[in-house]
Amino acid sequence: MFADTPSQARAWADLDSDYVDRSARRFPEMDGREKTPPTLRELVSDHGWFAFCRCCERSVFADCPDAVWQSDDEVFCSEACVAQLAKYLGRGRA
Ligand SMILES: [Zn+2]
Q1: Please, how many CA atoms are within 13 Å of residue 8, restricted to the half-sphere of its CB?
Q2: 2: number of CA atoms within 13 Å, CB side?
Q3: How many A from CA of 73 to the centre of ligand 1?
């Protein structure tokens, strides 16, 4: 999320925070990226972020050896989780 000012960033971080603990942090390397926001994959691989596995919600870091990226915004912690979610979705459609 790109904010124009620090106070706007803090205000956005406070929204809905009754249920979710959020905070605002400035990433200077993202300045100028408003028009081409980084993908989740880029944030994880190049900027030290982590993502949640789409299946089990385990944290996936850049150095996770078994991570499986299905797109630049979808990651699984392992092939087992890819298979498990595929099996679950397949059952839903049957
Ligand atoms: Zn997983």
Answers
A1: 5
A2: 11
A3: 15
Q: What's the CA-to-centroid distance between 26 and ligand 1, angstroms?
A: 29
Q: Which of 66, 86, 91 is nearest to 76 (CA)?
A: 66
Please state the pTM of the whole predicted model: 0.70
Q: What's the 53 CA to ligand 1 centre distance in angstroms? A: 5
Nearest to 23 by CA among 32, 34, 14: 14
Tens place of pLDDT for every residue, the chain, 94 residues?
A: 677 887 887 777 777 556 566 677 888 888 888 899 999 999 999 989 999 999 999 999 999 999 999 999 999 999 999 999 999 998 765 5
Question: What's the 17 CA to ligand 1 centre distance in angstroms?
Answer: 26
Neighbours of ion ligand 1 (CB under 5 A): 53, 55-56, 58, 77, 81
